[in-house]
Amino acid sequence: MQYMALIYTDPALTPPMGKAMNDDYFAYTRRVKDAGVMKAGDALQPVTTATSVRVRDGKVETIDGPFADTKEHLGGYYLLDCADLDEALKWAAQIPGAKYGTIEVRPIVVFG
């Protein structure tokens, strides 16, 4: 089963991205790939680069920045292929951002 592990962090509490953090993420990514669990994953640019799109009454509206105003920002994700939720949670707990943020784990809907 596939699970999306969404990495949320509060920029005010997150250490700056530097060599140590990059090394932690590269090591985690290597482990999850070597285990055959990682299907995809990427880091996202800061929320200041976001544009939100919505359609209301047939009109397209764009808004600079995220739609939701929250302390924690979505910074990246891993798509994991695991036997069950327990395995997905085991891998999610090893994501470096879990030390100072929140990892939201959600199963992927399979249509058909």
Description:
With 112 residues, this protein is an alpha+beta fold. It contains 2 helices and 6 strands, in the order βαββββαβ. 14% of the residues are buried.
Layout of helices and strands:
Elements: E1 2-9, H1 19-34, E2 38-43, E3 51-56, E4 59-64, E5 73-81, H2 85-92, E6 102-107
Antiparallel strand pairs: 1-5, 1-6, 2-5, 3-4
Count of DSSP helices?
Answer: 2
User: Helix and strand string, N-terminal first?
Assistant: EHEEEEHE
Gyration radius, in Å: 16 Å
Classify the beta-strand content into a percent band: 35-45%
Task: Provide the helix percentage.
Answer: 10-25%
Mean pLDDT: 92
Give me the count of strands.
6
| Sheet with the most strands: spatial strand order | 2-5-1-6
Biggest sheet details? 4 strands, antiparallel
- Structural shape: globular
- Kindly report how far apart the N and C termini lie: 15 Å
Q: Which structural class do the helices and strands define?
A: alpha+beta
Uncertain stretches of 5 or more adjacent residues: none
List keywords for this structure.
112 residues, alpha+beta, 4-stranded antiparallel sheet, two-stranded antiparallel ribbon, 6 strands
In short:
This protein is an alpha+beta fold and 112 residues long.
